[in-house]
Write a structure and sequence with these properties.
globular; mainly alpha; about 200 residues
Length: about 200
């Protein structure tokens, strides 16, 4: 597992430097900007791009993927989780500098970030593992665009209708639910990938 994670990190730093630059930029901007939804959510979008591109890169290599399929899928989910967790720590630190922890504004943006972090890849990754990254590229972008649009829509809906009711008592259970769906997505991806013929 550690070897697979190290390989992903090596590929990331050698092949996808622009994504890393974009990620750092949006993390820095998100820590100081008042446009919370955009600058705090977009790093999570980049994390999804990174994982999808790492899978595509592996599939393009001569000889394909030589790791056990279950282990390979878990490594990709774990890699994305680690990157997302680091990004969330930075984004939440930025939120804490602007809002009181537990306030409606803080919880609204945090809820959007959690949804973008775990719900979008929970839908996107099984599609990729079922069909391959090359065959799923259009579906991948559709899921990404629709998923992020829905995050913004529901964020706005909460802000205008229910913002006074949003607190950590709602946000934390919602985040746990998103994480559980992410884990279930991993199991579904394993099932799809093991059945897929190379």
């Amino acid at each position: 597992m550690l070897a697979l994670l190290k390989k992903d990190l090596d590929i990331l730093t050698k092949q996808y430097k622009m994504y890393i630059i974009m990620l750092v930029f949006f993390l820095c901007a998100g820590s100081v900007s008042t446009s919370d939804e955009f600058f705090s959510t977009f790093p999570m979008v980049i994390c999804s791009w990174l994982t999808a591109n790492l899978i595509a890169y592996d599939e393009r290599q001569e000889g394909g993927i030589d790791s056990p399929k279950k282990l390979y899928v878990i490594s990709k989910y774990l890699f994305q989780f680690i990157v997302v967790a680091l990004c969330l720590i930075i984004c939440i630190a930025g939120l804490c500098s602007r809002y009181a922890v537990g306030s409606a504004d803080f919880c609204n943006v945090l809820l959007t970030m959690l949804a973008a972090s775990f719900l979008v890849p929970a839908v996107m990754l099984p599609i990729i593992f079922k069909n391959s990254a090359a065959k799923s590229i259009l579906k991948y972008y559709a899921v990404l665009i629709i998923g992020i649009a829905m995050c913004y829509y529901f964020s706005a809906a909460f802000e205008h209708r229910y913002i006074a009711q949003i607190g950590l008592g709602f946000t934390i259970p919602a985040g746990i639910l998103f994480l559980l769906l992410y884990v279930l997505s991993c199991k579904l991806s394993i099932k799809y990938y093991e059945k897929r013929e190379d």
